[in-house]
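no rush on this but wanted to send it before i forget. theres a chain ive been looking at and ive put its sequence and its fold in token form underneath. please have a look and point out which stretches look like helix strand or loop to you. thanks a lot i owe you, the record is right below:
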Amino acid sequence: MPATNYDTVFRMQDASIHDFFRLTKYVRGHLPHHRLDWSTRPDTYKSYSSAERICLEPPLVDGGPGIWTVMNRRRSVRAYKDEPLSLKDLSQLLWATQGITAETEGYQLRAAPSAGALYPIETYLCVNRVDGLQPGIYHYAVREHELEVLKTGDFSRQVRAGCLDQQMAEKAPVVFLWSAIFNRSTWKYLNRAFRYVLLDAAHIAHALALASTALDLGSCQIGAFYDDELNELLGLDGTEESVLYVSVVGPPRRI
């Protein structure tokens, strides 16, 4: 494609980004008004009824290094040892990112914040090397703190290819893939919801980065991926539910 055509495409993309923010701004005196129909509220929890379930260990909720120590030590890690991740550590990471931490006023609150406590983000895993788990694709059942087995096999090369061929996505013991079920948020926040689901995913990814550091593990967040390829791997339609963010986790290899 000639360079001038690329320039046109980039100008169009830039305009659409600015249009999105302009059209989803909150302006004093002109906030959107709509009546919430509670009978149509989307389910907060996704489950695969026919999937095999794997129970996870109860998480630790105290002890460990102090929060300031963890924040100071956190770094993006792109190289990992060949050793597996323990199932206990995986359980702790899942809880630290989306685990239920309290119940109040009819809401089950989680470790990471969510706009309106609507929790549109779902967690999928590509397991490469985790003690006690077969390699494969899993879904985190938040309510029960369990894993649902979606399919077994080695999908490490597919995930690497989907992540713009970044080697760490193949070599890490586990890859977290976060998707959004958009109507959980649009039900309440209309177009503004698309801002919120991105923020929710960022909260969760940061929680994973800090929790990984606390467990002497490394993590790296990945925003560059082929959306359609990862959606196809997870069986998502890319419209009602789509991958938003990816992170890799494992024992760091010192270079």
Remarks:
- The chain has eight helices and nine strands.
- The longest strand covers residues 241-250.
- The helical segments are 3-23, 67-73, 87-98, 156-162, 168-171, 183-189, 193-214, 227-234.
- The chain has one domain: 3-250.
